[in-house]
Amino acid sequence: MKQKYNKILSPYNLANGTTLKNRVVVAPMTTYSGQEDGRVSDEELAYYRRRAEGPGMFITAAATISPVATSFPRQMKVYEEKSISGLTNLATSIKEKGARAILQLHHGGSESLPGYTGGEQMVSPSGIVASIYKEAGEEYTPRELSEDEIVSTIQDFGRATYLAIKAGFDGVEIHGANGYLIQQFFSAYSNHRSDHWGGSLEKRMNFPLAVIEEVKRVRDHYASKQFIIGYRFLPEEQEESGIKMDDTVAFVNRLADQELSYLHLSVKNVWSLPRSGSNRTLTRTEIFRDVIAGRTSFISLGSIYTPDEALDVLEKDVPLFALGREILMEPDWVKKVEEGREENIVIILPRDSRSKLEIPNQMWANIITRDGMPEKR
């Protein structure tokens, strides 16, 4: 290993005291490849196993916390006892390779997928159609959640946390980004409520904060403080009335005091600049690094491929970086850095590499056809 990459491979203690063996995190990526009933498939297990040996922490694909929360075909479930066996196998497959296993908890809200929600109508804070479904049919129109349903949904996150603990995961990540239900509650675009759950910036924070409190409550009852609780957030929305950078700065300032193990920024490029806000000279990563100010651990990601690009993140006082597309293309990324073979790290995805890389069939089909997931960087 080249000495200059020592920091990439150095251990790191999360805010809750749990030690990661290095600074490399695997970002959550949808596999579209669970069993039809939502249990973990053999294809998925092989995919995770192939990538779990090197990184310090591995965040799974989003796991749906209830039928109406489902947003992807063959999405992994974390609301039924019958899923425990497969989830246990998944946690074990990651942990036995030396990485911390984190289950991402997800509710799609108005971005759930009709036909996969157990016959239920999609739900959202205010019955606003998701922007991605604006041109779609009536079946994509959600209904507004009642007060009782909001409380029940918060409890669903708690139950999912209990099942994750029972399955042997080292922690959970609350998915508060990418347009899904928790983000919908925080956004003025999708949340038009005037009760406890909306009507002002502060009130739009109440749902995500309540989810965090419920997850912590379950953690304290069934596990220890060593159980990791992370939160993923998006900095801005494109909609005119949507989330602005200053909104998220205020929110992250609150999140940093919630005794979370880490906060995880969701951006496509680690050094992207904000599109709005009072500070547009620093990158989003630098802004949130400064807001968090060491109160909890911070993960950034986005278009990181090489060890030099990863090192640049760490040298900007960001303690952890996540690899997404790159770990798909190069499962041996960490091993090659350890062995001083960084020049052999793959940064182009060959079209004939699916089997060798142990990428599930349906995940592969989405990778090679979807915009934003090109064959090469």
TrEMBL record:
Q: Which domain of life is it from?
A: Bacteria
Write down the InterPro entries for this protein, in alphabetical order: Aldolase_TIM, NADH_flavin_oxidoreductase, OxRdtase_FMN_N
From the Swiss-Prot or TrEMBL record, give the protein name. NADH:flavin oxidoreductase/NADH oxidase N-terminal domain-containing protein
Kindly state which keywords UniProt assigns to this record, in alphabetical order.
Answer: Flavoprotein, Oxidoreductase
Molecular function as annotated in GO: FMN binding; oxidoreductase activity
Keyword Flavoprotein set for record: yes
Residues in domain NADH:flavin oxidoreductase/NADH oxidase N-terminal? 8-344
